[in-house]
Design goal:
This protein is of the alpha/beta class. The protein folds into two domains: 170 residues, Rossmann fold (3-Layer(aba) Sandwich), CATH 3.40.50.10950; 159 residues, Isocitrate/Isopropylmalate dehydrogenase-like (Rossmann fold, 3-Layer(aba) Sandwich), CATH 3.40.50. 44% of the residues lie in helices and 16% in strands. A hairpin with a 5-residue loop joins strand 9 and strand 10. Helix 7 crosses helix 8. The radius of gyration is 20 Å and the shape is globular. The C terminus is likely disordered.
Length: 333
């Protein structure tokens, strides 16, 4: 069933191919993925290498990055040094609309990718933070949507507050609906189900549920829920009543990075599941990180997901204009 879900994602990407940049041409997996993407028409892929970066463009991107970040202590000299990094250069190409999405991480750590993302891309004010998620495809599974579940956050925030968990939940639910065209049913996970245990950790999750519902009243969000209460209808029926989420959750929000990261890797290995991501959430411009252990299909699917997000107009390149002054500094407006 999962292969059918992935087929639909790839077919949606083909309907309106987007320009996706891959700043890791030294990785053979990336080259093979790009060849498939180009041949099948999933996107218009662009490979960016250290040698292909334009020095004059580096100067211009450096001025722009300095303007974006000078209130945070950025200097032009530091910005110009960062433009020698292919991840920063690629992220600035995305920021300025030269491409529609970015996929990286096969040859770089998540921390390296995130540094470029946080410094160069625009943060969605409605979300207010950068986070990540995985689309998990579990073969021969009845859970989620045809075996597809979303796990968050598994790659960015080590110990999110209640407020951050609420924003992770809302951004994850929106992403799930955009990609699958299915209604998101969000379970805020805990070792407790509706008061079966207590303590600060449980209270943090309880509070996040209230805040998430305030942020997006038309989403189905419930908690605190243990994993079996969230996924198994029979257990949900025994433990609680009148929930639109319990027993049928498809979006799982973990209370911290330990739980999320361990869970996605266990699911991937023990259930022979596919993990697409980490998809970066919270930026206006769509991008996906990759695990350095990714396979070619992981890269292809990350590109397809990024293309669909670009189709959804997370970033409208037609509204970007470049204005030069006599010093060749410019800004996007």
């Amino acid at each position: 069933m999962y292969t059918e879900a992935i087929r639909r994602i790839r077919e949606r990407a083909k309907k309106n191919p987007q320009r996706i940049i891959f700043p890791e041409p030294e990785d053979d997996r990336v080259l093979r993925a790009v060849d498939y993407i180009r041949t099948e028409g999933l996107a218009e892929p662009f490979l960016l290498s250290q040698e292909s970066m334009d020095p004059s463009q580096q100067d211009q991107f450096a001025f722009l990055l300095y303007e974006f970040r000078k209130a945070k202590g950025m200097t032009y000299e530091k910005a110009r040094g960062l433009m020698d990094n292919v991840l920063f250069y690629a992220a600035m190409m995305l920021r300025c609309g030269f491409v529609d999405g970015m996929v990286a991480g096969a040859a770089h750590s998540t921390a390296a990718v995130m540094r470029a993302v946080v410094n160069c891309l625009e943060i969605n004010d409605r979300v207010g933070l950068v986070t990540s998620c995985f689309l998990m495809g579990i073969p021969n599974s009845t859970f989620g949507e045809e075996g597809v579940l979303l796990y968050a956050d598994c790659g960015v925030l080590p110990n999110p507050t209640s407020e951050q968990l609420a924003r992770i939940a809302v951004s994850s639910a929106q992403f799930f609906q955009d990609i699958t065209d299915k209604t998101a049913r969000v379970a805020m996970l805990s070792f407790s189900t509706k008061g079966s245990a207590n303590g600060d950790l449980v209270e943090k999750v309880k509070r996040s549920v209230e805040l998430a519902k305030d942020l997006k009243k038309d989403f189905f969000i419930d908690g605190e829920l243990q994993a079996d209460s969230a996924l198994v209808p029979e257990i949900a029926a025994r433990k609680l009543k009148d929930s639109d989420v319990a027993g049928k959750a498809n979006v799982l929000i973990f209370p911290n990075l330990d739980a999320g990261n361990i869970s996605y890797k266990l699911t991937e290995r023990l259930a022979n599941a596919r993990a697409i991501g980490p998809v970066i959430l919270g930026t206006l411009q769509p991008c996906s990180d990759l695990s350095r252990g990714c396979c070619v299909d992981d890269i292809i699917d990350a590109a397809a997901v990024t293309a669909i997000r670009a189709q959804k107009k997370y970033f409208n390149r037609e509204n970007v204009f470049i204005n030069f002054d006599k010093h060749y500094a410019y800004t996007c407006v």
